[in-house]
Amino acid sequence: xxxxxxxxxxxxxxxxxxxxxxxxxxxxxFIFLHDKPHxxxxxxxxxxxxxxxxxxxxxxxxxxxxxxxxxxxEPYDVxxxxxxxxxxxxxxxxxxxxxxxxENKSLYLPSGFTExxxxxxxxxxxxxxxKEFMLEQIKQKLKNGFTCIKIKIGAIDFxxxxxxxxxxxxxxxxxxxxxxxxxxxxxxxxxxxxxxxxLAKYKIHSIEQPIKSGQIDEMAALCxxxxxxxxxxxxxxxxxxxxxxxxxxxxxxxxxxI
Length: 258
Hints:
By secondary structure, this protein is of the alpha/beta class. Helix content is 35%, strand content 22%. It contains 8 helices and 9 strands. The two termini are 34 Å apart.
C-alpha cells in the first residue's frame, strides 16, 4: 500500500462567527491510499484541522502527515502511537483504512443511514453576528423544517442573543423545537450562573462550554447546579489517553459531552 496527502483550502460561503473569532476559510488535509505509486486513490480520509482551535495545530503538522504516509505499511497500532498528539491525523487514518476496507469511495461505516433506511437527526446551526443576521438565519432554519436549532452565543451583547432565542420560543414550544446553545467558553465563571438562569427561562436543552476550559472546579460547580444541562467541548481537547478522559469526566460530571 502507498499513501499520499494533499491540502485543500475551503472558502466559507459566509463568514462563520464564533466567540473566539470569525472564520472565512478552512484548510483540510486529506490522506489518500493507493495500490501503486501515483495511481488513482483507492481510499481517502479527512484530517479536519481547525487553525487556532485544534490542539494539533502545530508547526510540524505537515511533517507528521508526511511521516505517516511514508510509513503507511507499519502496524496500525504503531501509526496510532505516532499520531497520539495529532488526533485529526488519527481520525483521517481511521477514515482512510475504513474506506479502503469497503472498496467504495463513499462508504466508511455501513449503517442504516448508508443503506438509505434510516435518517440522522441534525441541528440547524446559527452562526454569530448582528442580531438581524442571527434572526434571519433562525427564520430560514425554521422555514426549512429544522426541529433543533443550535445557536452560538457570546460574541454580541447578551440581551440581543436572548431576543433571538425569545423569538424561537414565541413561535414554537420546547416540544416542537429544541434549542441548544454553544458559548465556546465566552462567559466568566462569576457571570455564568446568572446568564444560565436567563437562558433557562426559554427551556434550553443544553449549553456547550459556558466557561473557558481548565476551570475544573468552577465547571463542576455549574454542572452540579444543573441550571441548564452542560456539554463539555473545548474541555476535552488535548486529552489523548483513556485515564485522563475518565478522570476529567469523574471530576466535572457533565450532563453531556460533544
